[in-house]
Design a protein that fits this description.
By secondary structure, this protein is mainly α. The chain has one domain. The chain has 14 helices and no strands. The radius of gyration is 18 Å and the shape is globular.
Length: 295
Amino acid sequence: MVPAPSIPKAAFWMALSIASMLGMSIASRETTAELNVFQVLELRSVIGFFILLPLVMVGGGFAAMRTQRPSAHIARNIIHYTGQAAWLYALTLIPLAVLISIEFTTPIWTAILAVSFLGERLSRSKLAAIVLGLIGVVVIVHPNAGSMDQGHVVVLGAAVCFGISMVLVKSMTKTESVVRIIFWMLIIQSTVGLIPALYEWRTPSAGLWPWIFLIAFTGMSSHFCLARALVYADATIISPMDFLRVPLSALVGWLLYHEQIDVFTAGGAALILAGNLLNLQRKTPQVAEAEAATP
């Protein structure tokens, strides 16, 4: 039975998703101060697998996780892993609000790639969204005219990787369940990342383990809560709530890390978010499901 639409319930689940994403950002900042990004990703995948295991068992066990599209899972997860590594590395270089603002260009890249590779129509609203998003990025990096900071380039690359991953997931959701997509994500990414993680392995200090477990837990809970929110309301209602992550990230960065936000970041973020709002006019349920399945 499909639950009846409910804005309050959708807002509740979306608030939990946003809180999880902010918690993951803080935990990632703390862990990358001591561990390399590959080790953080490896620990997240391994611990995340055991967190997911009960859902796998309830959903039919390992037999239900069999897939007829192994190559699609492998391609998607290599790209997604690259994006995650870039995102974590950028987190050590630039303020949290700047990182999240540029990360919000992911739907813009998804729109471009969907037009190029999935044959989707480039509507006026999509074109306007793309233009606004790209102008927003230029505004954010404007203080360094003539060159871009390394952190800006890295997180922009992460956003492009996430956009490619989103397009691949969108095509996979026709045959693959959300749990199966996440299951293979954890299996493949833990395998891909094992060697680079072991290359410079450093045993985490006792005080770091709570942060590591928080990354693994919030990495799963944020997207589970997002998927639950989408049960009770359309993406056109849910996604604007997600934009609260930008000002909240700025607040967290200011309170915990004494990060200052300038007018360029605020203006660029506003343009990027405006572009996303325009893009929402054409968002389909399949796109929303793909976003919920992309940790």
